[in-house]
Amino acid sequence: MAQETPDFQAYSGADPPHFANEAEVECARILDYHGIAWEYEPHSFVLEEDENGRVLEAFTPDFYLPEQDTYLEVTVMKQSLVTRKHRKIRKLRERHPEIKIKLFTRRDFERLSHKYRLNLAS
């Protein structure tokens, strides 16, 4: 994403975040506005590996909220394409049941957009 990263007050990561899309920027703005400490893509989780231990599939949730010990995955994909995200989250929960994660979809963003009058890119 070739835009300038806003100055976030609640961001607790070491390096400036490099967001993949405008929805992630808006999510960061919402978290920041509410003073919720957050990190951007701080951890990747192995979902599948081969018999030699080589990683075949991994998942890196978009946000981590350290005070809530919760991960957020943000997607504005069409609802019909969200199945892949759900599958990854299901695999994450199976392999790492101690991890708390929430998926924010297009529908969630439409509700937030309406409530907070945000201009979210689709």
Give a verbal description of the structure.
With 122 residues, this protein is of the alpha+beta class. It has one domain (22-116): VSR Endonuclease (Endonuclease, Chain A), CATH 3.40.960.10. It contains 3 helices and 6 strands, in the order H-E-E-E-E-E-H-E-H. Strands 1-4-5-6 form a 4-stranded mixed beta sheet. The longest helix is centred in the C-terminal third of the chain and has 13 residues, at 83-95. It is globular.
Brief account:
The protein has helices at 22-33, 83-95, 106-116; strands spanning 39-40, 45-49, 55-59, 63-65, 70-74, 100-104. It is α+β, with helices and mostly antiparallel strands.
Compute the number of strand runs: 6
Q: How many H/I helical runs? A: 3
Query: In the residues, how many domains can be counted?
Result: 1
> What order do the strands of the largest sheet run in, or round the barrel if closed?
1-4-5-6
Main β-sheet: number of strands, strand sense, barrel status?
4 strands, mixed
Uncertain runs with pLDDT below 50, 5 residues or more? none
- Beta-strand content estimate: 15-25%
Return the string of H and E elements: HEEEEEHEH
Q: Could you tell me how far the N terminus lies from the C terminus, measured between alpha carbons in angstroms? A: 15 Å
So, the CATH homologous superfamily?
A: VSR Endonuclease
Class per helix and strand makeup: alpha+beta
Give descriptors for this structure.
Endonuclease, Chain A; 4-stranded mixed β-sheet; two-stranded antiparallel ribbon; 122 residues; single chain; globular; alpha+beta
